[in-house]
Design brief:
Length: 107
């Protein structure tokens, strides 16, 4: 299960509404990189992949590929807008370590 705070949900709705192209969903994925070895990624998708895991949340669809799914199971996604940081922040119970900014982790 993927959990979204109210702030994250509102931000996602704004990004979808502001998209120039039709949106099938928001992809949440994990890729190599970042200061802790793995990093989170988000992107609006025009089409869903055949093997995507989908979650309907607050009127939109989250898309997760099979490789990323076990690494983000139980994750909470927040959207922070402060003087020092604006963007999505991830709280992952599967991470064994994470960076201070919350955008990369190790499993």
């Amino acid at each position: 299960m993927i959990n979204l705070t109210d702030n994250a949900s509102k931000a996602i709705h704004r990004f979808i509404k502001g998209s120039e192209n039709p949106v099938a969903g928001l992809r949440i994925f994990v890729s190599g990189g970042g200061c802790s070895g793995l990093q989170y990624g988000l992107r609006l998708e025009q089409e869903k992949s055949e093997d995507d895991f989908t979650v309907e949340v607050d009127g939109f669809t989250l898309l997760v590929d099979p490789m990323s799914r076990p690494m983000i199971e139980g994750i909470t996604v927040d959207f922070v807008d402060s003087l020092t940081h604006t963007g999505f922040k991830f709280n992952n119970p599967n991470a064994t370590a994470s960076c201070a900014c919350g955008s990369s982790f190790s499993a």
